[in-house]
Amino acid sequence: MTLELTAVSKRFGAFTALDQVSLRIPDGQLVALLGPSGSGKTTLLRILAGLETADQGLLAADRGRGQVGFVFQHYALFKHMSVFENVAFGLKVRPRRERPSRTGIRARVQAILDTVQLGWAGPRMPDQLSGGQRQRVALARALVTEPRVLLLDEPFGALDSQVRKDLRRWLRRLHDQTGVTTVFVTHDQEEALEVADRIVVLNRGRIEQDGTPQEVYERPASAFVYQFLGQVNRMQGRMRAGSLEVGGASLAVAEGGLAEGAEAAAYLRPHHLQVGLAAVPGSVPAFVRRLHQAGPFARVHLEAVHDGTELEAHLSQEALDALELRPGQVVYALPSRLDIFPGAPGPDYVI
Amino acid sequence: MAELARTEPRAVRVALTALALAFLGGFLVVPLAAVFAEALAQGWRVYLAALREPEAWAALRLTLEATLGAVLLNTSFGLAAAWLLGKFQFPGRRLLAVLIDLPFAVSPVVAGLMFMLVFGAQGWLGPWLIDRDIRIAFALPGIVLATTFVTFPFVARELAPVFQAQGGEQEEAARMLGASGWQTFWRVSLPGARWGLAYGVILCTARAMGEFGAVSVVSGHIRGLTNTLPLHVETLYNEYQFAAAFACASLLSLSALATVGLKAWAGRRRAAAMQTSRSAP
């Protein structure tokens, strides 16, 4: 089922949770709504579910009985019912002529419990299960009615990191098998990048960027997206003669639009910062502060000589060995790719 | 807190414990034992004979009828009020909570008088009711009304915090699964709060059976007709029939002891239910 929102706004008292958000989710897509807390992502999901109503705007979705499956962050299992009764609930509340027979219900519940690898857990009570098992029961309960849309609110947020990784891969496989339109809310960029076909980044009730994981990671549309997805270096400076002056270097600005003397900042990923021993045009002189060589690549912590800006560069082990760096030494950091966004110093968001 | 308590000198602890036990013994255990001792003072035969009196039987039946009526009414009112208080925020919510507690603040005798002022022969509705031969004062309906008023807060007060602790997520989950409002209430909300309900009903029952003041005003003390068990005890006592009075009193005491046991049991289940509701599982 296709979901479509047009210019939807929602306020809670003085707080604007959503501000003129438009979004179209075609049938069969797996979409992540990504953003910090207070960005409006959960409100957006709850409006899609019909659990909240928008103050303004239009929602086009066919939300019949049991058409939309919803999974809550804290599972919201019925505590006084067994796992079997929890999963069977969506079938048992149907009007008599739409309800499967008792044996039909039993078979369907058992089949869906087997799918979530909890075939043995039917007679158990929810409080006898672990968090990951409870969340799988919640998924089974949402899926048993064969919904045409599955909505998940921070589904793995309350779980341990290993269980979380297993479950999100499982969710991806489930989507590949069933093809049901799926929207999940998360504040975990790694989760969004790994699971989703498409990421909608939200900030302060607005959509900052909407694209494939590769697009939002490689070509962030705003300073916020740069900072929220992945690691980033930020160098604050001022426009001078068509270039951005930062930390004693002059960085070429690809596009115009920034006035002479305007405050702006350069954003670049750590793997787009090359480290050399000789000054070249556009390079930033910096002290080597620390070296971390554990892991697939080496991380070099730098501090710009001119203004003390902290920078991080990711190099291959071979490149690092060739440089023979020592803490305290001065090197030249050369951005191989960067984006410049206007703005004064200060964080773009607070977690 | 436990650590703090242990720092008190031993003598202080022993003295305080002894004081508390002596107080409990003097004001609770000894009088209760005295009731049974007096009831059986002239032997089992007299005890059983006192309970077999037609008037005692009538009083017991009336007490049970009034209790049943009051508990049924207060369970339905209490469910509705607790649902409103526990699940919704609305203007006037605090006022409703205060109104529900009002019967605790009003003396039962005053409560009885209020009903007489409305339903009594000289009351506002008295002549109208007499014309239509509807008997409320000095009859079972009046006794049920007075008992209901006095015991009104119990179910609502015990149930509202349980509903509140449930939060709204289970109801939302039920709604997303296609359940109607009624299905959600009967299958999800109420079963989740059943121990809170049981606790409130037990307290309400106990208080209803023992109610004296309000019923004393509206019943008119007609022996064998509108005397409830507590009123019957008083009548017998005033007529110096001590063995019979205490025999009937012992019935009320037994029901009180049973209530204490039930209440402790339901209270534990209720606390456990609220615990699991609060902690994110």
Helix content percent band of chain B: over 70%
CATH superfamily of the largest domain in chain B: MetI-like
Helices of chain B, by number, come to 15
> Based on helices, strands and strand pairing, what is the structural class of chain B?
mainly alpha
The count of β-strands of chain A is 19
How far the N terminus sits from the C terminus of chain B, by CA atoms, comes to 27 Å
Number of domains of chain A: 2
CATH topology type of the largest domain in chain A: Rossmann fold
Mean pLDDT over the full residue set of chain A: 86
Number of helices of chain A: 9
Beta percentage of chain B is: under 5%
CATH superfamily membership of the largest domain in chain A: P-loop containing nucleotide triphosphate hydrolases
Describe it.
The complex is a heterodimer of chains A (351) and B (281). Chain A is α+β, with helices and mostly antiparallel strands. Chain A has 2 domains: 3-224, Rossmann fold (3-Layer(aba) Sandwich); 234-342, OB fold (Dihydrolipoamide Acetyltransferase, E2P). Chain A contains 9 helices and 19 strands. Chain A has helices at 41-49, 83-92, 102-115, 131-143, 161-178, 189-195, 213-218, 223-228, 317-323, and strands at 3-12, 15-25, 30-34, 56-60, 68-71, 149-153, 181-186, 198-203, 206-211, 233-240, 243-246, 249-252, 263-268, 273-276, 284-292, 298-304, 310-315, 330-335, 339-342. In chain A, the strands form 4 sheets. Chain A has a 6-stranded mixed β-sheet, sandwiched between helices. In chain A, strands 12-11-10-13-19 form a 5-stranded antiparallel β-sheet. Chain A has a 5-stranded antiparallel β-sheet with strand order 14-18-15-16-17. In chain A, α2 crosses α3, α2 packs parallel to α4 and α3 (102-115) crosses α4 (131-143). Chain A starts with a strand and ends in a 9-residue tail after the last strand. The mean pLDDT of chain A is 86. With 281 residues, chain B is an all-alpha fold. Chain B has 2 domains: 1-39; 43-278, Orthogonal Bundle (MetI-like fold), CATH 1.10.3720.10. In chain B, 80% of the residues lie in helices and 0% in strands. Chain B is built from 15 helices and no strands. In chain B, α9 (153-166) runs antiparallel to α12 and α12 packs antiparallel against α15 (242-278). The radius of gyration of chain B is 23 Å and the shape is globular.
